[in-house]
Write a structure and sequence with these properties.
The chain has 2 domains: 1-195, no CATH class; 200-342, Heat Shock Protein 90 (2-Layer Sandwich), CATH 3.30.565.10. It is 58% helix and 13% strand. It is built from 11 helices and 7 strands. The chain has a 5-stranded mixed sheet. A hairpin with a 2-residue loop joins strand 4 and strand 5 (273-279). The longest helix is centred in the middle third of the chain and has 61 residues, at 97-157. 27% of the residues are buried.
């Protein structure tokens, strides 16, 4: 380790890094190499030989926190290999080809684990920063959009703007769509950020009635009938915010794509899982759309307005609960969106 420190301090690592931080868990990793050598020689070892070095993975995470580059992480393992071989040579140990292979295999495994964890933690951190940035922008946009919509409605109420007209209608629709995009972006960020679930007791009927209330206006305007069917409505524990958002998006989406007919919301609870289905009368999905249904910014019908975020938000909410969501296309009739969510019954 002294030989290794001399090789990396001031070159791969700054001189200012304390010795304990620089060395980190590498002595444990060296013991893993020793254990691998003893096992290969058929000798007993006080240390087990791990299949994957968790020590190296933790080392990669620690190097990211200290500001090491990925190149430096790889090269310090190369320096460790050189230090092992040089120390053996100075001690009069002639390493065999087989022993060198064991050492090199252990080093390569260590590099792979350290780099993998380094990249994973870096990507998570970059995603967190991106989410924070988008959330900040969305929050900054929400207030002026809300103020603009309020001002527009006041001007119409006071007769200072015509209640109808192409320009006024375009302005109002534009503000509403921008507001919708901001709200959906915030919902997406909240779920994608890996927030801890806040479970609380509720029932399917309560969740269904909330979703129905949110879709009722558009359904009545289009002449679409909403049907709610619930079997075994026992109490469940879920994150009400997320499931309410998922069901609201699914039901509004179903109403949007149903030209005429009905939309049915069905649910049941059994064996610790809630099963929910939303069946619409959209006529079925075009070829290739089933696979893309839950991807962000994909619209099922290019003739419809919206941003294609509703189904992606629903999937994220279900994924956060460890559940599944899928879609079945019924050509010529409609679609069934099915959710299965693990729930804990009080």
């Amino acid at each position: 380790m002294r030989r290794w420190r001399a090789a990396v301090q001031g070159t791969l690592a700054p001189d200012s890094i304390p010795r304990i931080e620089l060395v980190d868990a590498l002595p444990i990793f060296v013991r893993e190499i020793v254990a691998a050598l003893r096992q290969d020689a058929g000798l007993p070892s006080a240390d087990p030989v791990p299949e994957d070095s968790a020590t190296a993975a933790k080392h990669g995470e620690q190097r990211l926190r200290l500001g090491f580059s990925l190149d430096a992480v790889v090269r310090e393992y190369g320096a460790l290999k050189d230090a092992v071989v040089a120390t053996a040579s100075d001690g009069g140990a002639d390493l065999t080809v087989r022993e060198l292979r064991v050492i090199f295999d252990a080093i390569i495994t260590g590099i792979a684990q350290a780099v993998s964890q380094y990249v994973h933690e870096r990507d998570v951190d970059m995603m967190r920063q991106a989410n924070e940035h988008f959330a900040f922008v969305a929050h900054e946009l929400r207030n002026p959009l809300s103020s603009s919509l309020t001002a527009l409605h006041l001007l119409k109420m006071r007769g200072q703007l015509p209640t109808e007209g192409r320009s006024v209608g375009a302005l109002e629709r534009g503000l509403q769509r921008a507001t919708e995009l901001v709200e959906q972006t915030l919902q997406t960020i909240r779920v994608a950020s890996g927030i801890e679930l806040r479970r609380q007791p509720t029932t399917l009927r309560s969740l269904f009635e909330d979703a129905e209330a949110g879709a009722m206006s558009e359904a009545e305007a289009k002449g679409v009938e909403l049907q709610l069917t619930i079997e075994d409505d026992r109490p469940i524990d879920v994150d009400v915010r997320l499931i309410r958002s998922a069901l609201g998006n699914l039901l509004r989406n179903a109403v949007k794509y149903t030209a005429s007919g009905s939309v049915e919301l069905r649910g049941s609870v059994a064996n610790g899982r809630a099963t929910i289905e939303v069946e619409d009368s959209c006529g079925g999905l075009p070829p290739g759309k089933v696979e893309q249904a839950f991807s962000p910014f994909v619209r099922m019908d290019q003739g419809q307005s919206g941003f294609g975020l509703g189904l992606a938000i629903a999937k994220q909410a279900v994924d956060a609960h460890g559940g599944t969501i899928r879609v079945q296309s019924l050509p010529g009739k409609g679609c069934i969106f099915a959710l299965e969510i693990p729930v804990t019954s009080p």
